[in-house]
Amino acid sequence: MQTEKELRTKRPVFLDLQILTKSLPIPGIVSILHRVTGVALFVLLPVLLALLGGSLSSGDTFDDYKRWADNFLIKLILWGVLWALMHHLLAGVRFLLLDAHIGTDLQTARKTARMVLIGGAVSAFILGIFLW
């Protein structure tokens, strides 16, 4: 028979995600966003390829897609997809460098994580301005 103390230690632990995210370091946030953007890009890839294939099929279809993409909400969604792509690309390069044992000390890892967060947003903003 188990004692009360043994029963208490085997109980599941409640993890409050709000508390965890407040104390999560920047490299952890970059890692989680890298995974989330990877899944989002994987899910959206067939849709984007279908749009590309449709736009290349004829001039009329391209004009239809162009009118559809002039909607503000659609532009905002496409800007979000562009940010996901840029963040995933920069974070992937960062993780490849970490796998090569480049930038593994704490200060450099934090600095490169900030660079990924800022670089992904800035590059998506700049590319989005050109596409707007």
UniProtKB/TrEMBL annotation:
Chain segments annotated as transmembrane: 32-52, 72-91, 112-131
Key words, A-Z: Heme, Iron, Membrane, Metal-binding, Transmembrane, Transmembrane helix
Stored CDD domains: SQR_TypeC_SdhC
Coiled-coil zones: none
Tagged with keyword tRNA processing: no
Binding residue positions for heme: H88
Gene3D superfamilies in UniProt: Fumarate reductase/succinate dehydrogenase, transmembrane subunit (1.20.1300.10)
Highest taxon of source: Bacteria
PANTHER family given in the database record: SUCCINATE DEHYDROGENASE CYTOCHROME B560 SUBUNIT, SUCCINATE DEHYDROGENASE CYTOCHROME B560 SUBUNIT, MITOCHONDRIAL
Quaternary structure and partners: Part of an enzyme complex containing four subunits: a flavoprotein, an iron-sulfur protein, plus two membrane-anchoring proteins, SdhC and SdhD. The complex can form homotrimers.
Protein's UniProt name: Succinate dehydrogenase cytochrome b556 subunit
Classification lineage: Bacteria, Pseudomonadati, Pseudomonadota, Betaproteobacteria, Neisseriales
